[in-house]
Write a structure and sequence with these properties.
The chain has one domain: Peptide deformylase (Peptide Deformylase), CATH 3.90.45. Helices cover 29% and strands 29% of the residues. The strands form two sheets. It has a five-stranded antiparallel β-sheet. A three-stranded antiparallel β-sheet has the order 4-5-8. A hairpin with a 5-residue loop joins β6 and β7. The termini are far apart. The model has no long low-confidence stretch (mean pLDDT 96). It binds zinc ion (ZN). The site of zinc ion (ZN) has 5 residues, from α2.
């Protein structure tokens, strides 16, 4: 496995529609392994192949149990509800915005060997599915953000979230 370089906003890889994977070979497996290593190293929760300069429909997501989900040729097949919250991107470092996404997202995808499966998740992982799949069509969350936060606003937002969590205990 090897770390790959994450490209940043302004790189044309992030604006392209990625092509489907047709060969489930060792090259794909290496890409998936490298993407997982790069994701874990970066401390993020999701990474799409175009973010490491590969224009193929491949995504890795870390769910809330810290399990890695590999999605090849993923498609959103159902959504439910709505959530509005903070979103950032490894390709747009240091910035955060408020984005509304579905609360529950069901995805159909292929695994590294080409077998089809379906997976459903909610909250942060559902948000992540939407965010990463957008990358495969050349879209960044900043196009969808209803508001980008200044560093002061981000601090205030995090403080409010922490207060809410304390209130729940
Ligand atoms: Zn991103």
């Amino acid at each position: 496995m090897a770390l790959r370089k994450i490209v940043e906003q302004g790189d044309e890889c992030l604006t392209k529609v990625c092509r489907p994977v047709t060969e489930f070979n060792s090259r794909l497996h290496t890409l998936l392994d490298d993407m997982t290593e790069t994701l874990v190293d970066s401390g993020g929760v999701g990474l799409a192949a175009p973010q490491v300069g590969v224009l193929r429909r491949v995504v890795v997501v870390m769910d809330e149990d810290e399990q890695i989900i590999e999605l090849v040729n993923p498609e959103i097949i159902a959504t439910d509800g709505e959530q509005t919250g903070l979103e950032g991107c490894l390709s747009v470092p240091g910035k955060y915005g408020i984005v509304t996404r579905p609360y529950v997202v069901r995805v159909r995808a292929q695994d590294r060997d080409g077998n089809f499966f379906e997976i459903e998740d909610e909250e942060l992982t559902a948000r992540c599915f939407c965010h990463e799949l957008d990358h495969l069509d050349g879209h960044l969350y900043i196009e969808r953000a209803e508001k980008m936060l200044s560093p002061e606003e981000l601090e205030e937002y995090i403080r409010q979230m922490e207060e809410m969590e304390e209130g729940e205990d």
